[in-house]
């Protein structure tokens, strides 16, 4: 090979290596990470009864496959939520759906048969009818031989306004369970009655349709949906290597599965810092994010990125808070 060609080849290689090194240095988390006490914790539905996710399908009744209970709490009840805050939660997530009489009931499933002694859709019952149900009726860890929570949660279904009133000033994340504009509009009707300082502590997520119904009424509210997160992450993948955070990523919330976050520029802690500067929260979900997996057991802590300064999603804040405090 002639000398001139060799020189050009070496020059090209040197430029490539310099660019690669600059790209790595500009997106490295080596010098980033939190010096805080521990990552902030999001308590998913309060303190919940957990269950194995192997073989889980969209129509699986999770109440019939719980782990043997080691606590008395049932998800989405105020007593469970209060226990979560007492255990160290920094934010609470809870589910909301519209009842037949236009109330914002706090309950996860669209159908009642799995968890309760009721039948049919939540949307076809009044709040008074739903209040009479036993929310722990269907929970079993041994295939139906015993029901250890039965009879212990009669009348405990709250409404969204009751949850907001129960925890003044605390960070709340409201999940609109039904992909229906009416649910979003009803929630927006309620949220517009709150003062600005309270609204600043409330976020909303769920289906694209109801979340858009809320955002159209309250454009300053922190809100997210699959479409919002998709737009943000696609834009960031295209430009994040420059450290630029696109407008689509500002003032929102990202629920990122631990398995996929590693593909983002600056992951983990530089990415979190960039999003924080854009007033966006990054919440780490365990696994691949398919089933709202949380960091729930001691072994799960090993999967948290070193120095993680974003939020952690957990169904068992009582277990995880003491471990992350270390």
Automatic annotation (TrEMBL):
Q: Which residues form the GP-PDE domain?
A: 59-324
Family annotation (Pfam families)? GDPD
**Which Gene3D superfamilies would you find in this protein's record?**
Phosphatidylinositol (PI) phosphodiesterase (3.20.20.190)
InterPro entries for this protein = GP_PDE_dom, PLC-like_Pdiesterase_TIM-brl
Coiled-coil boundaries: none
Tell me the PANTHER family matching this sequence.
GLYCEROPHOSPHORYL DIESTER PHOSPHODIESTERASE (PTHR43805), GP-PDE DOMAIN-CONTAINING PROTEIN (PTHR43805:SF1)
Under which name does UniProt file this protein? Glycerophosphodiester phosphodiesterase family protein
This protein's species is Actinoplanes subglobosus
């Amino acid at each position: 090979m002639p000398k001139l060609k060799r020189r050009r080849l070496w020059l090209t290689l040197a430029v490539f290596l310099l660019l690669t090194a600059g790209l790595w240095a500009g997106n490295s988390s080596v010098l980033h990470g939190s010096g805080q006490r521990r990552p902030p914790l999001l308590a998913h539905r309060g303190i919940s009864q957990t269950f194995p996710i192997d073989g889980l399908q969209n129509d699986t009744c999770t109440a019939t496959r719980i782990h043997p209970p080691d606590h008395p709490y049932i998800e989405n009840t105020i007593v469970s939520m209060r226990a979560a805050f007492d255990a160290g939660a920094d934010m609470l997530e809870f589910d909301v759906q519209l009842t037949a009489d236009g109330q914002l009931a706090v309950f996860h499933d669209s159908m009642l048969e799995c968890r309760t002694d009721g039948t049919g859709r939540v949307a076809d019952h009044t709040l008074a009818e739903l209040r009479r149900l036993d929310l722990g009726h269907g929970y079993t860890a041994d295939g139906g031989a015993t029901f250890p929570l039965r009879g212990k949660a009669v009348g405990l279904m709250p409404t969204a306004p009751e949850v907001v009133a129960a925890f003044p000033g605390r960070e709340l994340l409201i999940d609109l369970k039904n992909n229906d504009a009416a649910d979003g509009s009803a929630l927006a009707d309620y949220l517009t009655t709150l003062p600005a300082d309270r609204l600043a502590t409330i976020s909303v997520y769920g289906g694209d349709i109801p979340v858009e119904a809320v955002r159209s009424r309250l454009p300053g509210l922190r809100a997210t949906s699959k479409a919002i997160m998709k737009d943000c992450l696609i834009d960031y993948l295209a430009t994040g290597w420059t450290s630029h955070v696109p407008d689509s990523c500002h003032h929102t919330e990202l629920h990122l599965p631990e398995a996929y976050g590693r593909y983002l520029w600056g992951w983990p802690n530089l990415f979190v810092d960039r999003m924080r500067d854009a007033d966006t929260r990054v919440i780490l979900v365990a696994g691949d994010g398919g089933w709202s997996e949380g960091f729930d057991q001691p072994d799960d802590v090993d999967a948290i990125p070193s120095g993680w300064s974003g939020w952690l999603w957990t169904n068992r804040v009582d277990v995880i808070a003491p471990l992350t405090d270390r």
